[in-house]
Amino acid sequence: MSSQLAALNQWVEEVARLTQPEKIHWCDGSDVENQLLVDLMLSNGDLMRLNEETHPNCYLHRSHPDDVARVEHLTFVCTSEREDAGPNNHWMAPAEAHAKIDALFEGCMRGRTLYVVPYCMGPIHSPLSRCGVEITDSPYVVANMRVMTRMGADALARIEREGTFVKGLHSIGELDPDRRFIMHFPEELTIKSYGSGYGGNALLGKKCHALRIASHQARSEGWLAEHMLIVGIQNPEGETHYIAAAFPSACGKTNLAMLIPPEAYEQAGWKVWTVGDDICWMQAGEDGRLWAINPEAGFFGVAPGTSSKTNRNALDMLDHDAIFTNVAVTADNQPWWEGLMVGEPAIDWRGRPYDPANGPAAHPNSRFTVSARQCRSYSPHTEDPQGVPISAIVFGGRRASLVPLVFEARDWNHGVLVGAAMGSETTAAATGKVGIIRRDPMAMKPFCGYNFGDYWAHWLSFNREGAKLPRIFHVNWFRKDGDGKFLWPGFGDNLRVLEWMINRVKGDAGAVDTPIGLLPHHRDLNIDGLSIGHADVEQLLAIDEHAWHQEYRDIADYLDGFGGRTPELLRQECARIRGALAS
Ligand code: OXD
Ligand code: MN
User: How far apart, in whole angstroms, are the C-alpha atoms of residue 464 and residue 486?
Assistant: First the structure.
């Protein structure tokens, strides 16, 4: 046995001594293995089979009602120095954190099977990919990891070849919210998660590895691990521009990644290619451009609001081989959620006969898990080992007022400030109050594995000799008029905004210079065929300098919260804009 696999074996043995499982199973990722797990879960009630005629190989999982979202207040970054985790993270000293969580793990797998899940984040032969091993006692986690990552024998072979891998230890424990922690030890490339079976807390390849641990690792190795979708936009001339976009959880990343062009665009020859919907790892290539891979292999998307109108590509990939979590079902056992627009719920997400008095039929954070290969718009270049070249980076949030539909940053440093200053209304993807505006820099507030001040400095460091950096934009699809109605139709029509961006990248479109950035001329946004008029466009692009002045005062205070770690360049950029707004 190679020394690397010996190290892995030793860790598995140590964990087994601590957790006392009845059996140990090394996952190979095969179909046979998956079928055995599915059969097991069907027999123990972890899964229910959905309508086999309309949804072959689709299953429903109902989680514990207290375990339906990420738990940011129980999520810790445990660096040896508190300052390295920063005010953006909950921190615990590593020794204390290990002691606390190991006490919970003690004997927790008695009577259960311990699954060893080797996985690769990213195409198996890409130099940008990274491997990990998750140990878990949840067959539901194994089944999801198989869809969301390259899991099994190939990953194990890469680990054996390469040496390093991220260690993730997970147990559902008792699913008791009072005995729940998600701990990260970036300096040890280790994750420990106890007491939750929910996606972001339990599928350790996703948020824990591909964002929190990877962002920390990326800083020391000179790359970026970001909470971004990646989409390829092919114009009628046949050129494809890849765009990476960071929006907070449940703000439309999946919809933008799978966008269906408006009819006139489709007829003109526009095409959209999905590379990823949640996570993007980027690195400067030899040509100076940033090249990106999607470390995931599947989608763990929010179900409510997904319909043939909002995201036909998503709906079409969900009628076979998918796992649904916390959705409702119809009388004939098809999955159902609010916004689906067809069918009616009979049983709600908790398994009760549907009664509107109990709230929504599907949990607002109910999810689907499905292989990316089932998506019609899936880009074949997703598998390219070198990744895809990024032409534009887009930041965005959910803001009912103030923030215009789109603007462009003046340059990279300004763009980093625009990302750092992102604010958005909170959603159901995490526990806590929904609809409160909070700062969510680069949509990484819940996911950055180190001090935001250092993170912004790392972003700024990409602006160096020879770099051919993407342009940076900011969008807000969610601006409302005085009556609370959305001003912009969104969804497929967002392509109209992306078209302006691509024209900017190519040098084919002008812009209006304002203190907050460069905005399109009204005539540069194609609104042909939309039911909105020029007055709406005017509102969508309006800038209230007085309100922006206040916003920038808040932004400056926010940056100050990171003290000496906030890069001076960012403060200067902020002061420059405040000055321009004041005059
Ligand atoms: C997710 C999230 O699950 O951001 O992607 O919460
Ligand atoms: Mn996400």
Answer: 40
- H/E stretch holding 473 reads strand 471-475
Q: Is 300 in the pocket of ligand 1 (CB under 6 A)?
A: yes
Cβ-based neighbour number of residue 454 at 10 Å: 19
Q: Hunting for tokens 């046949």 — which residue is that?
A: 238
Helix (H) or strand (E) holding 535: helix 534-540
Closest listed ligand to the CA of 70: 1
Helix 412-420, helix 452-460: angle, nearest 10: 160
pLDDT in tens, 319-337: 999 999 999 999 999 999 9
Residues belonging to the chain: 583
Query: Would you state the structure tokens that stand for residue 488, as one six-digit string?
Result: 């912009």
Q: Which ligand is nearest to the CA of 72?
A: 1
Residue 431 has pLDDT above 90, yes or no: no
Å from CA of 522 to ligand 2 middle? 32
pLDDT one-digit tens code per residue, 474-531: 999 999 998 999 999 999 999 999 999 999 999 999 999 999 999 999 999 999 999 9
Show the domains of the chain with their CATH numbers: 3-48+74-222 (3.40.449.10), 226-297+380-582 (3.90.228.20), 298-374 (2.170.8.10)
Q: Name the amino acid, one letter, at 276.
A: G
